[in-house]
Amino acid sequence: MNRKYIDRTYVIILDIAMVALGLIMISFFGKEIWNLGSMLLAGGASVNFYKVSEIILETFMFFEFAILTREYFVQDRISLQNFIYIGITAMLRNLLVIHNDTLDILIQAAAISLLVLVFIAYNLSKRYILTQKHHDERDGKIFIEEHPENDF
């Protein structure tokens, strides 16, 4: 009973933290939309393209984090695959906005390449584990079919 109480308390605390995080994200999202709207309406010709594109890309990041929060509440977990997707897209968006320093571009490209390699390795290992699981189940069924005299 004590273990169930601790687990339930942990889930409640985690849910409250996720709701708080969601509210914080919504407030920052509203702030970014307000800044973007005021910049575009008041700016005229003096609007900095890079600043506008940076705010728009940050807005898309809010959408991705909202999707992660929703996934947590629907599935009770957040998959590593989605974190890798978000990391890759965030780095690509960052590369679109910040591209004035060659060393930064090289570091970001290396980070994107590393994330892609991690994603490939993760998918291959997941596929290997599933194949092994099915292989073990298949071997067990074949063994039972070949040895019907034993009661398993």
What does this structure look like?
The protein has 152 residues and is mostly helical. The chain has two domains: 77 residues; 74 residues. The chain contains four helices and no strands. InterPro entries: P_starv_induced_PsiE, P_starv_induced_PsiE-like. Keywords: Cell membrane, Membrane, Transmembrane, Transmembrane helix. It is found in: Cell inner membrane. Its main location: membrane.
Computed structural class: mainly alpha
Radius of gyration: 24 Å
Number of helices: 4
Overall outline: flat
- Total strand segments: 0
Overall residue-averaged pLDDT value: 79
In what range is the share of β-strand residues?
A: under 5%
- What is the total domain count? 2
Q: Segments where pLDDT lies below 50 for 5+ residues? A: none
Give the fraction of residues assigned to helices: over 70%
Subcellular location: Cell inner membrane
Membrane topology: Multi-pass membrane protein
GO biological process, one term: cellular response to phosphate starvation
Family: Belongs to the PsiE family.
